[in-house]
Hints:
Number of domains: 1
Number of strands: 6
CATH architecture: 3-Layer(aba) Sandwich
Mean pLDDT: 93
Distance between the termini: 38 Å
Strand order of the largest sheet: 3-2-4-1-5-6
Radius of gyration: 18 Å
Helix content: 25-40%
CATH topology: Rossmann fold
Shape: globular
Low-confidence stretches: 249-254
Order of helices and strands: EHHEHEHHHEHHEEH
Amino acid sequence: MQHGWPERLWIVRHGESAGNVARAAATAAGLAWIDIAERDVDVDLSRLGERQARSLGRWFAEQPESERPEVVVVSPYRRARRTAEIMAGQGAYEPEHEFLIDERLREKEFGILDRLTTVGIRERYPEQAEFRRILGKFYHRPPGGESWCDAILRLRSALDTMAIRHAGRRVLVVSHQVVVLCMRYLVENMTEEQILAIDREGDVANCGVTEYRFDASMGKDGGLRLERYNFTAPLEEEGTPVTTEPDAKVAAAS
Length: 254
């Protein structure tokens, strides 16, 4: 059946990265700067992140073929690509299935605030801390960076592409924390208040799964119904630690 939505949509945050680990260390030490040598796009998974990706990949592999992804769409950032590749190695999806890299799924850009902790932002850019307090994270755009609205604009385009190109198919997206939240905002037609309330409940877990299933009863053309959010049972069942630290560039606030 062809319709304007994927038959199934999974949105997965990448496994724990070296940036997650560096951010936690900097925050614990009260430092202003998160010490990472690579560009953010090149930051790889930690060993735990690789283990998380393997656990999630095995979980997908254990599902019936009709319940596994047919199309994989991935952020160009290394930690997201590595997560998807490791999952494939565990049988989460077949090698011959479509594997697409889409730059619209990249992490939110933080501009001059990149790699600063909350302490660092207050010390170096107190005016930006004040602007964010006034505007809120949904609308605040740091110089050279993006607001949530900016990220949503490109994600709206990416979601439209999926609806047109992959209608009726099972699609896996591997990306980043803010992308998971902003995709929920779009798919579920939320308000600013609704998505920020979800955000306040806690961070999206590394390799946490958000899953939607097409429901023909939702309106004239049907829609995607949320099946589960921040689902971490695939990791927990194997005894793999669940982590939720933001990435280095999300240190101040997602």
